[in-house]
Amino acid sequence: MGKASEVSSQRRLGTRKSKTGCRTCRLRHVKCDETPIACTRCTKAGFSCEGYDTERLAHKRKPPGITILSVLLPGQTTDERRSFNYFHSFTVPMMNGWFDHQVWNSLVLQMAQAESAIAHAIVAVSALQEVTESTGVAILPEDMADRTHRFALYQYSRSIEHLTTRMRSNDPNVRNTVLICCILYIVFELIRGKYNAAITHLQNGMRVLGAGIFDYHALYQAHPGLQRKVEDSVAAALVHLDLQSAHFGASIAHAQLDPGMLENGDNSWPEPVNFDSLQDAWVARDRIFLQFCMFATLCDSLSEANIAINFAILSKEQEKQQIQLLNFAQGLDRLEETRLRRGTLTEKDRGSLELLRMHHMGVSVITDSCLIKSPAVIRGLYSQRFRATVDLAERITARFLQKGRETAPRLTLLMETALIGPMCLIIDKCHDISIAQRALHVMESWPHREGLWDSTLASSVAGGRILKIREDSELGL
């Protein structure tokens, strides 16, 4: 028995496969001789040697909460599967912080099974994201001496190689693959702090989507980009990011609005809306945000004299937006009543509705005050409503941070507008130092990213705006 056991043990030791072998041998579960370029074992057996991973992660103990899904991504390395599962277990729930977005909840993960470009992009994002979660740092400066950075960049380049090959096919479904890769590349570059590269990917994605200049008046009826022969959730995600980029002057889909366009546009009035789901409400909110962004930018650009000259046109458009906002709020109320009646309103749903109502409150007060140029008048008429919006934002933030303390890892990455953009708008528009400081504290209390918005950078810019409010107040403006 002793000899038999010894022979068996030696046989097992003799067939132990290499952890640094070629991808083909690892897939076949055989020992690789690791011959450079292409291993001898593959070539002698008639297999195509797929080469070696130039960068691999250092061995790490499996994080709590991750269940390795061996059925996923057959042929991938242990490191790739581990990063994919980190994305599945932690990154996706984070992306769905308030809303269950189909693009993150199912589509990206499903398509990764058949699309190598998406799978490698997921691994690249996940490798960097795990570092940000463990350190609490939203932006990782590039460090090529770091093994994780090299691994992530290697996965990123492999994704681009696969996507380039994929785009040569005549498959009509390739557009979805390209667009999802664009979204993942945007996330990857944002984590690295490469904003110009992220914007380039976004603009390329919008061109592939086929979204031209948005028809301002059509926004009263439909969300732009949803009728583009791609998955609605993919189109909505890209258009949402483009909306964020408009705040930085980087959107290629927003035309400069002028009074003539309003005067010659559609004269129909907004109609009541009903939402079958919170996703419907999220899409409707983005339509309102798009219009609000274009109209508010126009009003900001006009002098008090120009507003007076075009007051009839501007006030009519303001009234249409006010009606649209009222319809939105009533649609939320009906959705909540229906969910309550059916007993299907979850705690997450309550949080989502609360966030949408905070957005409605902020956009409504800025819309109501957008034709007023006097800071003193705005403070006198609207400070209470600005304050109520920040009150709600503080409650939302406190609840979300409490939720974050009860889970792991830290919540630093969202791909939807939550608090940063609205708080920046309130700081810019309220002309009240105490309200602005509270809004700034909301951002500073939770370092994180919401798509193109970074709370740390936004707080720095907002701090400068608060200094200007204080100076104006001292001058009696």
From TrEMBL:
<keyword id="KW-0479">Metal-binding</keyword>
<dbReference type="Pfam" id="PF00172">
    <property type="entry name" value="Zn_clus"/>
</dbReference>
<dbReference type="Pfam" id="PF11951">
    <property type="entry name" value="Fungal_trans_2"/>
</dbReference>
<protein>
    <recommendedName>
        <fullName>Zn(2)-C6 fungal-type domain-containing protein</fullName>
    </recommendedName>
</protein>
<dbReference type="GO" id="GO:0000981">
    <property type="term" value="F:DNA-binding transcription factor activity, RNA polymerase II-specific"/>
</dbReference>
<keyword id="KW-0862">Zinc</keyword>
<feature type="domain" description="Zn(2)-C6 fungal-type">
    <location>
        <begin position="21"/>
        <end position="49"/>
    </location>
</feature>
<dbReference type="InterPro" id="IPR021858">
    <property type="entry name" value="Fun_TF"/>
</dbReference>
<keyword id="KW-0804">Transcription</keyword>
<dbReference type="GO" id="GO:0003677">
    <property type="term" value="F:DNA binding"/>
</dbReference>
<dbReference type="InterPro" id="IPR036864">
    <property type="entry name" value="Zn2-C6_fun-type_DNA-bd_sf"/>
</dbReference>
<keyword id="KW-0238">DNA-binding</keyword>
<keyword id="KW-0805">Transcription regulation</keyword>
<dbReference type="InterPro" id="IPR052360">
    <property type="entry name" value="Transcr_Regulatory_Proteins"/>
</dbReference>
<dbReference type="InterPro" id="IPR001138">
    <property type="entry name" value="Zn2Cys6_DnaBD"/>
</dbReference>
<dbReference type="GO" id="GO:0008270">
    <property type="term" value="F:zinc ion binding"/>
</dbReference>
<keyword id="KW-0539">Nucleus</keyword>
